[in-house]
Amino acid sequence: MVLCLVPIGSGFVKNFHIVGEGGSYDAINCIYKQGTWSNNKLNGGTVYTNFFNPIVNIKVGPYSENQPNGTISEYTFDKTSWVGFIANPPAGIAATKNINVYTAGVLTSTTSTSSVNISGTISKNLANNVIGFTFVEV
């Protein structure tokens, strides 16, 4: 597995784990997790992006012990739109936004669903590993 750990702000890497704020990119499973880490688990505000499956899934919100826990904004779109999404077009690409409520990783309810346009940016280091991911609703 190719795993890239990226400290952000005051975060740092210790014993192959992120401590504090940072990101983890798994190149095999196409998952990028960024947020606040403690005990090698996400705790606090998180952006969890899975672009391995035919439907890209981006979850934004609070995590506890590596699980979504609370009100999470969840964006989904077809993976065929991925290249257009990360090209950061001014108009964005079409996505579905669900406001979901999770309890310890289990989806308990969906409070709203809407259509939105989103645009993303991925930054990579010299080894072509993902070191940053941001996106916005446009």
Provide structural commentary.
- 4% of the residues lie in helices and 69% in strands.
- The protein is mostly beta strands and 138 residues long.
- Strands 1, 2, 3, 4, 5, 6, 7, 8, 9, 10 and 11 form an eleven-stranded antiparallel sheet that branches.
- The mean pLDDT is 93.
Task: List descriptors.
globular, Histone H3 K4-specific methyltransferase SET7/9 N-terminal domain, eleven-stranded antiparallel beta sheet, mainly beta, single chain, 11 strands, 138 residues
- How far apart lie the N and C ends? 34 Å
The rounded Rg comes to 15 Å
Total number of helices = 1
Oligomer: single chain
Query: Count the strands?
Result: 11
Mean model confidence by pLDDT:
93
Determine and state the CATH class. Answer: Mainly Beta
Low-confidence stretches: none
Work out the strand percent: over 45%
The shape is globular
- Please give the domain count: 1
Q: Would you list the SSEs in sequence order as H and E?
A: EEEEEEEEHEEE
Largest sheet descriptor: 11 strands, antiparallel
Helical percentage: under 10%
- Please identify, by name, the CATH architecture: Single Sheet
> In the CATH scheme, what's the topology name?
Histone H3 K4-specific methyltransferase SET7/9 N-terminal domain
Q: Structural class of the helix and strand makeup?
A: mainly beta
